UniProtKB/TrEMBL annotation:
Gene: flhF
Family from the record: Belongs to the GTP-binding SRP family.
A cellular-component GO term for this protein: plasma membrane
Name of the featured protein: Flagellar biosynthesis protein FlhF
Keywords per UniProt: Bacterial flagellum biogenesis, Bacterial flagellum protein export, Cell membrane, Cell projection, Cilium, Coiled coil, Flagellum, GTP-binding, Membrane, Nucleotide-binding, Protein transport, Transport
Compartments, as annotated in UniProt: Cell membrane
Keyword Transport recorded: yes
Length: 380
């Protein structure tokens, strides 16, 4: 009702409403929309557009009076501010003169110059301010030190914060590197992609987003394999996505079954394997995951991390997944954080390339290739 009144005025009324869906495949994945038919009486509009001449004259007179009063008040305020500024300026100059009256006249000029430089910038050391900024962005101290050293190598002990930040953006982008997406094989065999990561990071939803991209937009033949039989709803969720996208799905219960499942889909372009979320504190579960990784012999492995994870938790996760020899970093829930410092930390700690980021729950829209420039600006 509020939106209707904003468009048509306070006298508008709603005549009817109905639920509708967006057209095309994307409509299957999106929430239904509400279509509203609203109207307003033409007589009311015409009366509003044609007010009486006497009322117009009265309104104009009142408006002119208000404008005159406002102008007078603004002029008085402007005069007061100017007087206060002049008084403060004169007092500051007087204090500077008293402080700088040294017996040796040769050092007076240099003292004045030094004090002016300190007064010109609101901080003592631009590198300290830069370090504080990165720390607030959840960047690890080790990464901050590396960045500061790189910047000093380029600009030295610059006292310009703007210059330091300009160089810092380039250095952060260099640290993040160029993202790498799924590379399909060109030998006629299916590309096997494995998704691993801690519990609750969003592996199944991310897998469905990528599947929709390659099925609907790139016209590739896709298959799902689910190794997540720990969560009750995990397999059903994947089967639902498979049914919507019209792709086959195979469920395995032991690591040894993965090879047979892959062999069933040799006519596909891409096989996406969903694994169970593993707590980095559960040794037995990690042993099973290692066996699955070894048996799958996947072409690509994606380690999923949530952008909202703490620095200490991220260190622990990366430590426990260090058995992965070759993988790419995929970050979820990018839309839920203000400063994605975790991305720079993980990239620096592992040296592995970035790939995708997810920016919401909507399938298939809310996934994109990591934009290094945007991430660098968000961190800084």
């Amino acid at each position: 009702m509020l939106k209707v009144k904003m468009d048509l005025g306070s006298d508008a009324v709603i005549l009817s409403t109905r639920k509708v869906r967006k057209k095309g495949i994307k409509g299957l994945f999106s929430k239904p929309m509400t279509e509203i038919l609203a109207a307003v009486d033409d007589d009311i509009i015409s009366r509003r557009r044609s007010p009486e001449p006497e009322k117009i004259k009265s309104a104009v007179s009142e408006d002119k009076t208000r404008i005159d009063l406002l102008e007078n008040r603004l002029n008085r305020i402007e005069t007061m501010i100017k007087n206060m500024y002049d008084a403060q300026k004169n007092e500051a100059l007087s204090v500077s003169e008293r402080v700088l009256k040294y017996e040796n006249p040769k050092i007076e000029t240099s003292r004045i110059s030094a004090i002016n430089r300190l007064n010109a910038r609101p901080y003592e050391n631009p590198y300290m301010l830069f370090t504080k900024k990165l720390s607030e962005s959840e960047v690890e101290p080790e990464v901050i030190n590396a960045l500061v050293n790189n910047i000093r190598h380029s600009v030295g002990d610059s006292d310009s914060y703007e210059e330091i930040m300009a160089v810092a953006e380039k250095k952060v982008k260099e640290m993040l590197g160029q993202p790498q997406t799924i590379r399909l094989r060109d030998d006629g065999k299916p590309t096997v992609v494995l998704f691993v990561g801690p519990t609750g990071v969003g592996k199944t939803t991310t897998l469905a987003k990528l599947a929709a991209e390659y099925t609907l937009n790139q016209r590739k033949k896709i298959a799902f394999i689910s190794a997540d039989t720990y969560r009750i709803a995990a397999v059903e969720q994947l089967k639902t996505y498979a049914e919507i996208l019209n792709v086959p799905v195979s469920v395995i219960y032991t690591p040894s079954e993965i090879r047979e499942a892959i062999a069933e889909f040799q006519d596909k372009d891409l096989i996406l394997v969903d694994t169970a979320g593993r707590s980095h504190n559960n040794v037995a579960q990690f042993a099973e995951l290692k066996a699955l990784v070894n048996n799958a012999e996947a072409d690509e492995i994606y380690l999923l991390l949530s952008c909202g994870v703490s620095r200490s938790a991220c260190r622990e996760i990366l430590k426990h997944y260090s058995f992965l020899k070759d993988f790419k970093l995929l970050f979820t829930k990018y839309d839920e954080v203000n400063v994605p410092g975790i991305i720079l930390n993980a990239r620096y700690a592992t040296g592995k390339p970035l790939s995708y980021i997810t920016v919401g729950q909507s399938v298939p829209d809310d996934i994109e290739v990591a934009n290094v420039e945007n991430i660098a600006r968000s961190i800084l």
